[in-house]
Sequence to fold (141 residues):
Amino acid sequence: MFNKAIVIGRLTRDPELRYTPSGKAVAKMTVAVDRGVPRDGDKHEADFIDTVVWDKLAETCAQYLAKGRQVLVEGRIQTRVYETQDGRRRKVTEVVASNVRFLGGKTNGSGNGGANVNGTAPGSNSLGEDVPPPDEESTPW
Fold:
């Protein structure tokens, strides 16, 4: 079996960068993905895809990306269950990014158009290094 997700859309807010107790960087961001071109009289619809980015890639995304910026995210879909402080169980489905590309021009003075931030050259097909699964250490949100 193979689990691969490719998402192209715009960030709904600035990436939220945090660090695990052991010092690993982890960023959370949400990508709004259009469902298609609305037909006459139809409402514009989008899906909001939660995305998690780890390590140096997380720090780079937090430094250069901002709300409204268009990105391409490559990674895998992951579902995890956690318990809230009040004891409720929550189930989350998210994309764990292995590669993030900045698309389009600069937005609000941030980023570099068309940059690939997994350490490979723009246009490369490499997915970069594997990222650790979020259950290795609890994500701090």
In short: The helical segments are 55-64. The CA atoms of residues 26 and 54 lie 4 Å apart. Residues 109-113, 119-141 have pLDDT under 50 and may be disordered. The first helix runs from residue 55 to 64.
